[in-house]
Amino acid sequence: MTESTHPQQDAADTPAAAFRCGTVAIVGRPNVGKSTLMNALVGQKISITSRKAQTTRHRIVGIQTTDDAQYVFVDTPGFQTRHASALNRSLNRAVTSTLSSVDLVLFVVEAGYYGADDEKVLSLLPKNTPVLLVANKLDRIGENRSEVMMPFLEKMGQLFPFREVVPMSAKTRDHIARLFDIIRPYLPEGEPMYDADAMTDRSERFLASEIIREKVFRWTGDELPYTSTVIIDKFETEGRLRRVFATILVERDAHKAMIIGNKGSKLKQISTEARLDMEKLFDGKVYLEMWIKVKSGWADNEAGLRAYGYE
C-alpha cells in the first residue's frame, strides 16, 4: 500500500479558493490516542486523556477554523468489546451513530499493531464515506521504522480501501499540518457551522466535569474509573470567576475511600489539579468544591445514565 497525498478526482474538482466545512469522525479502539489527536488538531485540550481505556465517554466536538476551511472533529469513545454494561452499550451507540452522519472518518490505530479490537472497529466503518487510516504513536517505533511500517501498511491496505494513509505522532504533533492538508479536499463546500473562534460545542460546565474525571482517572487504581462519574451540581459564573460544585459518583464505599486517600490527601490532589486545569482553560479563577457519593449500580441503569448525560 502506498501513501497518497491527494484524494480521488471527485473530491478535488472544485477550486481550492472555495471555503469548505465538514465533520470528521475520529474512531478506533480504546487507547490508540484519539483524544490526544483531537487536542492536537484543535490546538487546545478539550478532550481528556489518560493511559486507561474508556477515558472518553461522550462524543466531543472540536473545531479548528482557518481562512479557507472549518474542520469539525468528533472524538468518539473507544468501541467497547469486553464489557456488557449499560454504560458500554451507551458508548458504542455514540460510535455507530457518529459514523452514519459525518463527511470523513479518521480510523486511528497504533502504528505497527493491528488486533482483534481494531478489527471490530474496522467492521463498523462505513462503505460510502471516505476513510483515512491514521497510524498513530509513530514515535514509539525505533530505528527500524521502515521495516515495521512497510509490511504493516501493506497489510492494512488489504483489509480496507482507505483513501489515504497518515503515519504520525499526535503526542509530538508530527505531521499535523500535513493531516489538515489531506483532510481539506474531502470536506464539502459550505459556510462555517460555528463562529471562527469556537473550539468546541460543549459548555464550560461539561468541560469542568470532564477535567475532574480525568484527574480521578489519573490518581486512582485500575478498577475505579469504570465505576465512577462526575456530576456538576452547580456552575456559577461571575465575571472571570467560576464557582464549581461537583459530586464524584462511585459504586462502593471502598471506592470512596480510594478517592479520599490518607487524611484526604488524594482528594486534595485531584481537586488542586482539576482547578488549575480549569483556570487555564477558562482563563480565570475557579473556586471548586467536591463531594463523593456512593450509588451502587449507577453504570448499569439506563434511565440513570441518561440523567447523567449519556446517550
Description of the molecule:
Residues 54-58 are annotated as: G2. Belongs to the TRAFAC class TrmE-Era-EngA-EngB-Septin-like GTPase superfamily. Era GTPase family. The chain is of the alpha/beta class and 311 residues long. It folds into two domains: 9-186, P-loop containing nucleotide triphosphate hydrolases (Rossmann fold), CATH 3.40.50; 204-306, GMP Synthetase, Chain A, domain 3 (2-Layer Sandwich). The protein has helices spanning 34-42, 86-99, 116-124, 145-159, 176-183, 204-219, 253-260, 265-282, 302-307, and strands at 20-27, 60-65, 69-75, 104-110, 131-136, 164-167, 228-238, 241-250, 286-294. The strands form two sheets. Strands 2-3-1-4-5-6 form a six-stranded mixed β-sheet, sandwiched between helices. Strand 2 (60-65) and strand 3 (69-75) form a beta hairpin. The longest helix has 18 residues, at 265-282. The protein is globular and about 55 Å long. The model has no long low-confidence stretch (mean pLDDT 82).
Short structural summary:
The protein is α/β, with parallel strands linked by helices. The protein has helices at 34-42, 86-99, 116-124, 145-159, 176-183, 204-219, 253-260, 265-282, 302-307; strands spanning 20-27, 60-65, 69-75, 104-110, 131-136, 164-167, 228-238, 241-250, 286-294. It has 2 domains: 9-186, P-loop containing nucleotide triphosphate hydrolases (Rossmann fold); 204-306, K homology (KH) domain (GMP Synthetase, Chain A, domain 3).
